[in-house]
Amino acid sequence: MLKFVENIYNQKASGKHSVTVFADLKKAFDTVDLDILCRKMEKYNIDSQWFSAYLKERKQYTTVRSASSDEEEVTCGVPQGSILGPLLFLIYINDLPQATKLFTILFADDTTFSLSHSDPNILLSNVNKELENLKSWFEANKLTLHPMKTYYMLNFPSKITKEIFKDKVYLNGHKLERIGEDQPIKSFKFVGLQIDEKLTWKRHLTNVLDKTSKGLRALVQCKKILPAQVKVNIYNGLLRPHLEYGLPLWGFSRGSAWNSIVKLQKKAIRAIADAKFNAHTTPLFQKFGVLKLDHLHQVNVCKLAEQIVKKEVPPPLSDLLTFAKSSRMTRNSMKTQLTSTNKEGPIAAMALLWNEENRKMPGASVSSYAKALVRDYMWQYSQYQCVNLNCYTCTQTKLKPPILTEDLLADQD
Length: 413
What we know:
Layout: H1 2-13, E1 17-23, H2 34-43, H3 48-55, E2 58-60, E3 63-64, E4 67-68, E5 72-74, H4 84-93, E6 103-107, E7 110-117, H5 120-140, E8 151-155, H6 159-165, E9 170-171, E10 174-175, E11 177-179, E12 188-190, E13 193-195, H7 202-221, H8 228-238, H9 240-244, H10 247-250, H11 256-273, H12 282-288, H13 293-309, E14 322-323, H14 331-334, E15 338-339, H15 346-360, H16 369-382, H17 392-397, H18 406-410
Parallel strand pairs: 8-11
Antiparallel strand pairs: 1-7, 1-8, 2-5, 3-4, 6-7, 9-10, 12-13, 14-15
Helix pairs in contact: 2-3, 2-4, 7-8, 7-11, 8-11, 12-16, 13-15, 13-16
């Protein structure tokens, strides 16, 4: 997903129009030809004889109540629900990018294509041509594209581009439906993230809010029953995965939905502590070792940046960030100052965030940067003090009167 989004921003920075096609395959795992799969495995120097014995001569039957059908041999398809199933399917379609000029992303049976050009008319012609090439490849490999469930999306489209592409993208003689703000389908779920034509992530933020609300309800229902540590585990199991998944991408988006998620997280930490609805949350975050959403985003961004610069990611991602080389930098700071090829997009924002945080902790190395960031945030939480002179909560709990300083004013709850 990160490479896909960065590619869109690359084309935008180059002044090109781009289109993305989200392809859907009919019963992808069930229609894999086993003979073709074994031949492809031999091409990749994989012992196909063992896999042939594993895949072929399998039989299946159906049981309804006490009646069972006759056994029939399975002649195609890879086992679903197994660890090997998605891997075998990826081997089967791994040569697909060689059959098209489209930028291709393969993720199990979710196949996504992207193409760009400075002239929208030429782009439309190239897209239709490449879709025909894809159709031929899928037919040769005994797979079938589903035109009714295949969509296309114009990235950062202009009115002229929308008009040129209107009802003119075809697959197997069927008009493909466009995803866009002015269309019935506003966004598309790609690798678990709701993506829209302008990469605003608004609908994904709404989706995260809906999912985390369910986890919050579970916390509220048991806040007076279970001990705090168990409720922390519930938070980590029901809320945190939704907050962290794809956070380095959608976390740079801000707006009403983001603020709603922040408020929801505060309600969750109050439920864990069984605190009042207006209790200050910063001390509670520190007490239970939970990061605020904004800080959670920054830590996840820095973790991903660490993996990229240390080459712990797949090769297509390893060159997205590089060390900055400037004569004004000292020898130590040069090791942790990062730069990106684009001036906008998630990678550019990642480099800016890294460099900004690095100025606060110049001594931190790349390998320990995210951990140092977590420690710094937890220390900030421990130093929290309310800055509201007439705070009702502080009055009721008989806290010390606030000390008005610039740092405390900047750290209001």
